[in-house]
Amino acid sequence: MAENTALIVGASGITGSNLAQALIAEGWTAYGLARRPDTGLAGLRPVAADLLQPEALRAALAEVAPSHVFITTWMRNATEAENIRVNGAMVRNLLDALSPKRSVRHVALVTGLKHYLGPFDAYVKGGTPPLTPLREDQPRLPLENFYYAQEDEVFAAAARDGFHWSVHRPHTVIGKAVGNAMNLGTTLAAYASICKATGRPFRWPGSAAQWNGLSDVTDARLLAKQLIWASTTEAARDTAFNVVNGDVWRWSWLWGRIADWFGVEAVGFDGTIHSLEAEMAGDGPLWRELAQRHGLAEPDLARLASPWHTDLDLGRPIEVMTDMSRSRRLGFAAFQPTEDSFTDLFAQLRADRLIP
């Protein structure tokens, strides 16, 4: 087999950074593309580029000829129509820039469960909920969805250039990243740290359905394993896969376990949704004080916490759980206990001086 050379698009994010570490550990040559690539990971070759600037993108990739491309990024916009235009263009520009090289053998695209639930606005407003557990053969929804636009760009480029593809649909991804737009694990760590410092209760912010229903999440390390597996396994070619840890649980159990780790008082669902975005709205100055007092590496709370996204996840009016049968049948057997996903993350954040 020819040497494996990876181009990780979004290498500074939760998914991309964990994937880069896994690939480098397995001996891959790894390039990390971002507008401001992280140069702190040993062995990762940074590529600074903006996916919305085609000419500059081609120039930045002039000396890069990847065998495998991993697309792990997206850009949030004000409307779904704008999400479709922008995120579709990002994938198209990238694959157009690589097309003349004829080096790409596999493209892996990371999307998520909004493939089944619809965009944020759709599942917040309600409507007919999808059947759970969510399965890959469920049809696309009759709604605008930028995930579909990203997939279609990959499919079109694959038909043109002859590479194979995989699509990966995690639930909420748990892992370390700074400056990430969707980061439930670190958001809860920051919230619990603030509760600890102020004596405020660690109050459940979400819905009754999420508090009482079954749920699952995706450890970024397990997602990296599936990305590598699918991109190097013949049976997994040209297929979409769900990817979650493999256990199911209820927030009514996990919430108290998280509170215990931080030594704070857990308060469960009390009949009302309490927006975490509103709860943390005035906590920026307090976090700066905590950062100064404890010598933290990141004094800007907004670069650690994304309470708006946590509200969307925990406020869903239905339980959300995911079927993993498709990849299990093909031999992907990785498993990750969810409580360990959170506590491993909290320990890493503390060791890296990101929480007190």
Automatic annotation (TrEMBL):
- UniProt superkingdom: Bacteria
- Which SUPFAM superfamilies does the UniProt record give? NAD(P)-binding Rossmann-fold domains
Where does the record place the PRISE-like Rossmann-fold domain? 67-356
Q: Which Pfam families match?
A: PRISE (PF22917)
Q: Which residue windows are transmembrane per the record?
A: none
Q: What is this protein called?
A: SDR family oxidoreductase
List the source organism.
Answer: Roseomonas haemaphysalidis
